[in-house]
Amino acid sequence: MDDKLKNEDPELLKEFQAKIDAEVKIEPKDYMPEAYRQHLIRQISQHAHSEVIGMQPEGNWITRCPSIRAKKILMAKIQDEGGHGLYLYSAAETLGVSRDQYLKWLHEGKAKYASVFNYSALNWADIGAIGWLVDGAAIVNQVSLQRTSYGPYSRAMVKICKEESFHQRQGYEIMVHMAQGTPEQKEMAQDALNRWWYPSLMMFGPHDGDSPRSSLAMQWKIKRETNDELRQKFIDKTVPQAEFLGLTVPDENCKFNEATGHYDWTDINWDEFWASIKGYGPNNKRRMKHHQKVHAEGAWVREASIAYGKKKEKKEVA
Ligand code: FAQ
Fold it and tell me: How many angstroms separate the alpha carbon of residue 113 from the centre of ligand 1?
């Protein structure tokens, strides 16, 4: 038996696994092994942090959109990401940890967020690449998570996926315009693809053999497909989209393999990945500083909302 389960009641564990195997969702008040709860606390809150930190590279471009139409779409998309963070924090709170605590862990560097958001959005083509590739990778992962075993997480994913597919199209539309534009615009689109390709592949996490969290998460159907399975799905889906744009993924080994039915590809630079998730990526410090600053500036909103709630409660009692 896994060491993390040694304090669990074997009978309850058996019933729990039977429920999971029968595809019955686990709800907040149901019995769950502590390791299941801890995995969800970490994964859902880190997912929420990713959505919110992910607003930063795109938010930087709101004032520099090339048209009012593009600006309206980008604002709506970024707002959606904030909303996704909120659904996910709510889902994570059902596990008995407050949102304040989750944010405290983030600010103390104890909680992670997706490494991809440590890269910079240097120009408008990057906004296209983020929507196409980063949201595209997020969808592949999140479609799978719609079937996760924890009810509140699964339900949040259903709503989020509907919005993410609009985000992916928003990005792809920008890439189509750039790739079919002037030679300089096409070059910008290729350059953005070159810089965002590998960070997007990193979103699926380490190889299965190096993923310590995967084994129990797969057994308990928190994760429905492994990191490598999802990454390959994304590659197989995205390379033809690049070809349609007349762009080339920055990997000379990325070719369709008739024997496997999948695209081959050159492995990720894992040193870069681990450095980024340990806080040494190109923008880690900047992203966190910005989040802390904005969170502190927003304190009055939270205080006002609590004060209003108390006032309303008093009136209702009176
Ligand atoms: N970045 O054993 P595993 C979005 C960590 S939302 C940073 O494989 P697990 C929307 C991992 O946490 C994108 N850290 O772990 C948007 C673990 O750390 P710990 C976010 C990573 O949990 C778009 C350690 O490495 N999506 O993009 C990463 O079984 C555009 C070992 O890894 C989600 O969060 C990484 N890429 O699998 C917004 C999806 N990969 O705490 C704005 C939900 C791994 O043990 C603009 N999460 N780590 O020290 C998941 O599916 C999983 O948590 C994985 C990792 C697949 C990310």
Answer: 7
